[in-house]
Amino acid sequence: MTEHQRIISSLFATDGTRKYLTSSEIKRFLYHAAKHDAHINLLCQVLAYSGCRLTEALRLTTMSIDLEAQALTFQTLKQRRSNVFRHVPMPNYILRNLLKNAERGGRTRIWPVHRQTGRRWVQRVMHTADLSGVRATTRGLRHGFAVGNVEDDIPVTILQKWMGHARLATTAIYTNATGPEELGLAERRWVTLEC
To answer: Which CATH number fits the domain that encloses residue 29?
Structure first.
């Protein structure tokens, strides 16, 4: 598979359908997540605001929360080396709610549930937000996080760190988004050219 084919298969299905949520779809997802139980809403917020994998979120413990640095520490699961960690900035209110969620249950892990349960929670929210198809998944949230950060001009090296990618080329895939994201980037350039 060529690099171009790999890029296309990462962000688009074989029929050309997006495999990522747009920023407006993520906002809609978060709006509907807030209508669910607090622990489900919190998991959805962590996934949307950090771009982490579901399993990485479910492995979070109270020790993963760094209030002073205002970040979550994730163990990166897709790298060949073990014990690779990354720090991802998070809104302070999410970090405090994570601590409350864990302390309320008197446990170390924030969500002591199986991955399938976490996936069902997210799918329930996707359904109530009227999001469907290949993009309405935890992976679609992760891809949407990356595309949204590219749109917001976050340097690709910072995004690489947040995503936990070993290679910059993997992160660069997200610069190949098309559709509304590509149009938004072009419109910003047009504004600079207008007299």
So the answer is: 1.10.443.10
Within 8 A by CB and 6+ apart from 87, the residues are 66, 69, 71, 72, 73, 74
Contact between residue 134 and residue 16 where contact means Cβ atoms under 8 Å apart: no
Q: What is the pLDDT along the chain (195 residues), one digit of tens a residue?
A: 554 455 456 788 888 888 899 999 999 999 999 999 999 999 999 999 999 999 999 999 999 999 999 999 999 877 666 788 999 999 999 999 999 887 766 668 899 899 999 999 999 999 999 999 999 999 999 999 999 998 888 889 999 999 998 888 888 888 776 556 666 666 776 776 665
Note down the domain range covering 173. Answer: 3-193
Helix (H) or strand (E) segment spanning residue 73: strand 71-75
The total of structural domains in the chain comes to: 1
Indicate if the alpha-carbon torsion angle 154, 155, 158, 160 is positive or negative. Answer: positive
The residues pairing with 47 across neighbouring beta strands, listed in sequence order, are none
In residues, how long is the chain? 195
